[in-house]
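testing teh design pipeline on a random one, pls ignore if ur not involved
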């Protein structure tokens, strides 16, 4: 902006300003017409960030979508246990039936496998095939961080060959059985270290158990991805495509957010190379966030209904800066000493408490713990959603009880 001093120069200077602004506007229009993407350096509030992420995670309104399409839009769902992704889908889809999920699981159109942060996720088979090679550097970091030098480089390929041969001969096997085989082949070796290295290096998927309520029993077997699903694993990494999918599911986000989510190192170089294809924003602290052009960014006053999220829901863990979903004061209440992330519920788009569910003698009891005092106007919606969730998640229960409790 040009400075204007005194009255004599006002008209002239303002005319110059208008001319400069008009020329810039004309140039911007021409650039926008030819460029792939126009960057925008505007600010975005925490509340607007919340609404943008909730929209992409299908948490502003339940959708009528297919299960595989939904899981792909979410870019996977953390699934250390079998039930949580079913709960996550129930919170996002209209009238979800468990059978709609188990059908896709048993057909291996959805797979459960090691994914970001070296944790088990539910994924579309196509996404797993497309990005498993992309995530190998992140899995290598997990191996190095956990194992240090417990596994010698000379042991890696013989170990992988032994597991491949074992599964080819025996079919899907539990990880305990895989460890037993490694103990037979490598007597005196660090079996748990070798097993962890195998899980993070060899593409393995958990094989569904036909008839299981939530797709898998607690003792499901592993098989190589090549034998367990139809899509062929990509051999080359495509980090740029991975970043775009991350932003589509969790954006707007910073480089540090993406690195925290994925464990992939040095993503700043990837974002910088893609800058011309992305929108640039600034958060309330002035930090640069990136997004896809045309991605949903609803108004910050968009209503956000009460939603229940399962343990380790990906949206809770998708950012280094999680203030869009939980206040700094409440964030410590999410973590436990054993790093377990509890199931949570939202009020007005923010994580407002946690919940548990257990069934004894035919009674499903859903316990609710608020992080802080809740608005009375929200209690009815919380309890109605909780009751519906318990009915879905515990199909064998004869009765549902809700119980508010203190931490």
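output:
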């Amino acid at each position: 902006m040009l400075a204007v001093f005194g009255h004599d120069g006002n008209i002239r200077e303002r005319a110059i300003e208008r001319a400069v602004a008009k020329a810039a506007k004309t140039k911007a229009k021409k650039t926008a017409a030819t460029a792939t993407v126009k960057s925008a350096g505007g600010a975005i509030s925490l509340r607007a960030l919340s609404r943008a992420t909730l929209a992409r995670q299908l948490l502003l309104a339940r959708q009528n979508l297919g299960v595989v399409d939904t899981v792909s839009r979410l870019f996977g769902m953390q699934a250390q246990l079998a039930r949580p992704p079913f709960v996550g889908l129930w919170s996002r889809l209209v009238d979800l039936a468990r059978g709609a999920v188990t059908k896709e699981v048993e057909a291996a159109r959805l797979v459960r496998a090691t994914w970001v942060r070296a944790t088990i996720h539910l994924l579309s088979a196509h996404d797993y095939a497309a990005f498993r090679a992309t995530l190998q550097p992140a899995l290598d970091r997990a191996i190095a961080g956990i194992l240090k030098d417990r596994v010698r480089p000379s042991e890696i390929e013989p170990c992988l060959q032994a597991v491949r041969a074992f599964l080819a001969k025996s079919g899907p096997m539990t990880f305990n059985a895989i460890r037993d085989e490694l103990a037979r082949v490598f007597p005196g070796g660090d079996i748990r270290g070798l097993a962890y290295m195998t899980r993070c290096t060899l593409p393995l998927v958990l094989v569904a158990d036909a008839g299981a309520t939530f797709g898998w029993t607690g003792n499901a077997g592993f098989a190589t991805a090549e034998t367990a699903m139809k899509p062929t694993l990509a051999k080359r990494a495509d980090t740029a495509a991975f970043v775009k999918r991350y932003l589509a599911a969790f954006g707007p986000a910073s480089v540090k957010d993406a690195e925290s989510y994925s464990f992939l190192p040095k993503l700043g170089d990837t974002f910088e190379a893609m800058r011309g294809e992305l929108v640039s924003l600034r958060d309330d602290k002035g930090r640069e966030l990136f997004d896809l052009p045309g991605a949903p960014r609803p108004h910050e006053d968009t209503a956000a209904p009460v939603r229940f999220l399962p343990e380790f829901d990906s949206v809770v863990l998708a950012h280094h800066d999680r203030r869009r979903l939980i206040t700094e004061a409440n964030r410590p209440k999410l973590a436990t000493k054993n790093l377990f992330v509890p199931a949570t519920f939202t009020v007005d788009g923010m994580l407002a408490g946690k919940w548990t569910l257990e069934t004894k003698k035919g009674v499903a009891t859903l316990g609710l713990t608020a992080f802080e005092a809740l608005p009375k106007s929200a209690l009815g919606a919380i309890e109605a959603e909780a009751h519906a969730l318990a009915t879905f998640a515990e199909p064998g229960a004869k009765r549902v009880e809700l119980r508010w409790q203190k931490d």
